[in-house]
Design a protein that fits this description.
The chain is an alpha/beta fold and 351 residues long. It contains 11 helices and 6 strands. The strands form 2 sheets. Strands 3-2-1-4 form a 4-stranded parallel β-sheet, sandwiched between helices. Helix 8 packs parallel to helix 10.
């Protein structure tokens, strides 16, 4: 492939401190995307009339979301703060947390979702934690992503643009962005997202605990047609609940499977029936109690999962190593499951 062109100078080099005027709780980097005369460089275009089915089909091509609806929404719109009240009470010493370079990779992205993604990161990220925003153009040929984009990012702090010069693909383009990032950490985001209040502090706090941590935020959704903010209707802010519920149901199905296997072992006269049967019964009790803890949003679910994982390790050890009368495919399945659970058990599951 041809060598990529040099990146444009970051816009925050043109603005001292990387923060504009008008800083408040909703605009942590000031009023961005504003022309010298005080007018916004990009303005929404209100929808006219009723959108027919044929209009929606046309507006969804080729991006699989309603571009016309996106064009009708302001770049600095408010989104509901769906964090749990306990999460809002946590305070972070942001001066001790690492700063990050946010990398956006895009290819022929429409301007409104791309600009809204950049605005949301600037508006809801503490200046101390946001080192820069790196835009990676992965070989776009859309005219609005050429000179118009270069002119627009001059109105944004801490933003720089680099182009691969050819269609490199998502992972190569992200690597390209990481190579041009100069922050202590790198955060990869899609080019049609919106971050919420307090999104960055917990991520940087986790990495601050251990630089080997690879963290991921809870991801809600934006309706592809109406562009309305959508989240889990019961308590979307409990990331652990969503993840651990799936693991608990997995543990439940495996424990019932182990119960049936232990009965099979007993029928074959294996001496390891009793430890398998007893630990499987205890495992079922732990899983049911864990589901109850999840339903009540209790932090005790983490300890329940730890006990459940340990019991599963013991069961799989008996089945894989000791119960030689069990067919080989079952022992192979038990060994693979044990490795997966061991990997799962080492993950950080605290909210």
């Amino acid at each position: 492939p041809p060598p990529p062109p040099p990146p444009l100078p970051p816009s925050h080099e043109l603005h001292a401190g990387g923060v504009f005027n008008g800083v408040d709780s909703k605009h942590m980097h000031g009023k961005v995307g504003v022309l010298p005369d005080g007018t916004p460089a990009w303005s929404p275009r209100p929808m006219q009339g009723v959108e027919t089915h044929e209009d929606k089909v046309r507006h969804h091509k080729p991006n699989c979301f309603n571009v016309r609806r996106s064009d009708a929404i302001a770049l600095d719109r408010d989104v509901p703060d769906v964090r749990h009240p306990d999460c809002k009470k946590i305070s972070y010493d942001i001066n001790k947390l690492p700063a990050t370079s946010v990398v956006f990779v895009f290819f022929n992205e429409p301007p409104s979702p791309l600009y809204r993604s950049i605005h949301s990161v600037l508006n809801r990220s503490p200046p101390q934690l946001l080192h820069e925003i790196v835009l990676v153009d992965d070989g776009s040929d859309a005219p609005w992503l050429l000179e118009p984009l270069e002119d627009y990012i001059k109105l944004l702090p801490k933003v720089k643009l680099t182009r691969t010069g050819y269609r490199a693909g998502l992972m190569r383009a992200r690597t390209h962005g990481a190579e041009h990032a100069t922050g202590e950490t790198v955060t990869f985001l899609d080019s049609h997202i919106e971050v919420n209040q307090g999104w960055l502090e917990p991520l940087m706090a986790r990495i601050g605990e251990d630089r080997k941590h690879v963290v991921m935020p809870h991801i809600d959704s934006i309706d592809a047609d109406s562009f309305s903010y959508r989240w889990w209707w019961w308590r979307a802010q409990h990331v652990v609940w969503v993840m651990e519920q799936g693991y608990l149901f997995l543990y439940l199905s495996l424990s019932l499977y182990l119960l049936s296997l232990s009965l099979s072992v007993f029928a074959r006269g294996c001496v390891f029936f009793f430890p398998c049967f007893f630990s499987s019964c205890v495992l079922c009790a732990c899983v049911f109690s864990g589901l109850f803890c999840c339903a009540s949003f209790d932090r005790k679910q983490t300890r329940v999962l730890s006990v459940s994982s340990s019991l599963l390790h013991m069961n799989f050890f008996f089945l894989r190593v000791c119960c030689t009368r069990i067919p080989s495919p079952v022992r192979v399945f038990a060994g693979v499951s044990e490795l997966l659970l061991l990997q799962r058990h080492t993950l950080n599951t605290h909210p």
